[in-house]
Specification:
Elements: H1 3-9, E1 13-14, E2 21-29, E3 33-47, E4 57-62, H2 67-82, H3 105-138, H4 154-183, E5 190-197, E6 200-204, E7 212-215, E8 237-240, E9 244-251, E10 256-260, E11 265-269, E12 275-280, E13 285-291, E14 303-309, H5 311-325, H6 330-339
Helix pairs in contact: 3-4
Length: about 350
Amino acid sequence: MPVRDHIRSAKLRPAAGVRPYRCTINVPLHDKHVFDTHIWWLRGAGTAKTGRDRGRPELRAMPVLSGLSATALIFGILLASAGAAFAGLGQPTPWQIDLQESASPVMDQISTFNTFLFWITTAIALFVLILLAIIIVRFNARANPTPSRTTHNTPIEILWTIVPVIILTVIAVPSFRLLFVELDVPKPDLTVKATGKQWFWSYSYPDNGNFEFNSLMVQDKDLKPGQPRLLTADNEMVVPVNKVVHVLVTGADVIHSFAVPSFGIRMDAIPGRLNETWFKATTEGVFYGQCSELCGKDHSFMPIVVRVVNEGDFNKWLDDAKKKYATDDSVAHDAVAAARIPAVQ
């Protein structure tokens, strides 16, 4: 039964010893939990003129806590008890409430700009809330029975035109600076080509040997302890720490998107077009990303795994990769990779 039907069917009963009347309504919540909604009824100033209640005080309904607000309160308590968490490094965190921890200079600037915008939006929201509170208290029908007929106020109209322009300008300047940093690729130490395919990624190192390998998601049954579900891949993209990595991004079939949050990069992989982005990992470790463009039925099963190592380990991996992948036939390898992508249950 809907909440409103419970309220309509509830019978009013006076609370002994107090002037207000109160009714208690048992409201089922999702057929599992029950909570009581209390509605207070205050006596009116006049008396009933007709009917069996003639001469008795009139009753006026004033719901103090509605079913919707009670539901919202319960949901908020449950959410708070679950415990939100700040984001970790390289991968998402349960109940995450912030951006992933930065591991590159670009992401440092993105995080700073995000915090800057947060305080601006918070100040605007508080300002609007204060204005609404003033209007509710000072200009309601009881406090202000004769409203003003003012239609224009030149100083206020000038302010609400100029102030938003100033705010947008303050936001635009660091925003354009950040876009320039993201798009202006410095002299690279390493170039990696990432090709999006349905539904996996292929990586090649054009300046370090003629080899290419595919990176497919590891199925749940094959995961090892500590490996995140839907984010782990069988072959990782390996790069050295503190080196500028130039990433060439393209698509082989449909539009994909190469994104690694901790590096602050996201670039569309478009068939027939070569896009570019870059990052400089400042911390060793494993960093996870995903395809961020809807690309078909297995779009959510295209993880990106970047392993950042020291230069010595990278050179060793590079030598092994040249031997391991250089002799593979790319066409046959793609066919085998596509056949290895079962739907995740």
